[in-house]
Write a structure and sequence with these properties.
This protein has 280 residues and is an alpha+beta fold. It is built from 4 helices and 17 strands. The chain has an 8-stranded mixed barrel with strand order 1-2-3-4-6-7-8-17. The radius of gyration is 18 Å and the shape is globular.
């Protein structure tokens, strides 16, 4: 089976073609195997290019975390997916739309000297607890105290494509992130688990984000997490409408328009062509 290895700001993916010859359970098992860093090819996530019945869409994106679990959306992933469509002749430079499990996403793709630059319309953030979902008697989780492993964090929960928790942390200590990340991901307040974003504000137009991804662990970047972190602080009046988001793998440019729709721009880089053997 043939795959292309991509990364977006260090968040790495395998992209291949969907086939009806595999059941959903078989896809999940296969993806968990090939995503393994030592026994497979290695990736934070895997995307399948599937046909979209509606010709208004360039293709349908099916996304899986590295553990084989399905997710509705991936911000860095859809940038790579869009560039992959262009690279394989299935989309032209400029504007087109990709269908995801989180709905249609508008893409503006540019081929520059330094490679692909892709802007994605990420939609609006959702704070309603039942739509994230979050167990909260307040109807939302905005700047609330949440205790885990004996420590209390100030957190905000929201959905930008997928569920996210924004946790402010002054010192990005990897040991603490690896300890509290999975504990927060699996906290009983989040019935479908949650992506955990540790955030440090650098100025009124810049933040730094490290994400512990649901189903993937610590990654170099998370596009939806960067957008969620930006919007949580913007919504609280602490960030300007447009901001730079520094992640371990690079920088993403994010802004909100007058309707509070979120837009993200960043790179997409093709790394290698890969063919997995029959054992997979």
């Amino acid at each position: 089976m043939k795959w292309t290895k991509w990364h977006g700001a260090g968040n790495d993916f395998l992209i291949g073609d969907w086939s009806e010859n595999y059941t959903e359970a078989q896809w999940q098992a296969l993806i968990a195997k090939i995503s393994h860093r030592h026994f497979g090819v290695g990736a934070d996530g895997v995307m399948l290019v599937a046909p979209a019945e509606d010709k208004n869409f360039a293709a349908r994106m099916i996304y899986y975390n590295s553990d084989g679990s399905r997710a509705a959306m991936c911000g860095n992933g859809i940038r790579c997916f869009s560039a992959h469509l262009h690279r394989t002749g299935r989309a032209r430079e400029g504007l087109f739309t990709v269908l995801t499990d989180d709905g249609p996403k508008e893409v503006a793709l540019r081929v520059a000297d330094e490679g692909y630059q892709v802007k994605i319309s990420m939609g609006a953030a959702i704070f309603a607890a039942d739509q994230i979902p979050v167990l909260s008697v307040q109807g939302s989780m905005l700047d609330e105290n949440l205790e885990v492993l004996g420590k209390t964090f100030k957190v905000t929960a929201l959905k930008v494509g997928v569920p996210h928790l924004v946790v402010e942390m002054e010192d990005f200590d990897e040991t603490r992130i690896r300890r509290f990340g999975p504990a927060l991901e699996n906290h009983p307040a989040f019935p479908q688990k949650i992506n955990v974003n540790f955030v440090r504000q650098l100025s009124d137009s810049a933040i730094e984000v490290v994400t512990w991804e649901r189903g993937a662990g610590l990654t170099m970047a998370c596009g939806t997490g960067a957008c969620a972190s930006f919007f949580a602080l913007y919504h609280a009046g602490r960030l300007t409408r447009s901001a730079s988001v520094k992640v371990p793998g690079g920088t993403l440019d994010i802004y909100a328009d007058d309707r509070e729709e979120i837009f993200m721009t960043g790179p997409a880089v093709a790394v290698a062509e890969v063919e997995t053997l029959a054992a997979f």
